[in-house]
């Protein structure tokens, strides 16, 4: 099992939206490193669900990988903001995974808390300028964030 952190703008798609929908394809990621991380994901991997550009930035709960990487259909839609003219059905450029709701934290674990906790030293989201929307998380960091969310 691996652990991940996935960022979303809370006003665009929140943990509450995922809870309502139960499951969604994590489409629209347009960063090669983030895409490559999604290609490493396996069913059952756990995800820290992080809201960015929100009133309170932080981890709001847990999601789970429900389906491994598959072609992101938005790359083929010329009307989509995520259209990719280089992509073909035979050779897609962008991939997504399906995720499902697992748990909402009692309280969000804020970015300030993540940055100030010495047990989370080395966690990528703490780094200055860390804008990557999909990133790996160590098991110990995952467990610590979950404990802080209780």
Which descriptors apply to this entry?
150 residues; alpha+beta; ph1033 like fold; six-stranded mixed beta sheet; 4 helices; 34% strand
Describe this structure in words.
The protein is α+β, with helices and mostly antiparallel strands and 150 residues long. It has one domain (3-144): ph1033 like fold. The protein has helices at 15-21, 32-40, 111-116, 139-149, and strands spanning 3-9, 23-25, 46-52, 58-71, 95-110, 134-137. The chain has a 6-stranded mixed β-sheet with strand order 2-5-4-3-1-6. The protein is globular and about 45 Å long. The chain starts with a strand and ends with a helix. The mean pLDDT is 96.
């Amino acid at each position: 099992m691996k652990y991940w952190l996935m960022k979303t703008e809370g006003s665009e798609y929140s943990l509450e939206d995922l809870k309502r929908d139960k499951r969604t394809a994590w489409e629209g990621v347009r960063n090669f490193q983030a895409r490559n991380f999604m290609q490493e994901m396996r069913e059952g991997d756990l995800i820290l669900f992080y809201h960015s550009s929100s009133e309170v930035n932080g981890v709001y709960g847990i999601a789970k990988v429900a389906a491994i990487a598959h072609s992101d259909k938005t790359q083929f839609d010329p009307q989509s903001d995520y259209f990719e003219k280089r992509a073909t059905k035979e050779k897609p450029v962008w991939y997504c995974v399906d995720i499902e709701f697992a748990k909402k934290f009692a309280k969000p674990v804020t970015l300030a808390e993540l940055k100030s906790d010495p047990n989370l030293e080395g966690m990528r989201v703490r780094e200055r300028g860390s804008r990557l929307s999909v990133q790996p998380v160590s098991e110990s960091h995952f467990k610590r964030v979950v404990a802080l969310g209780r």
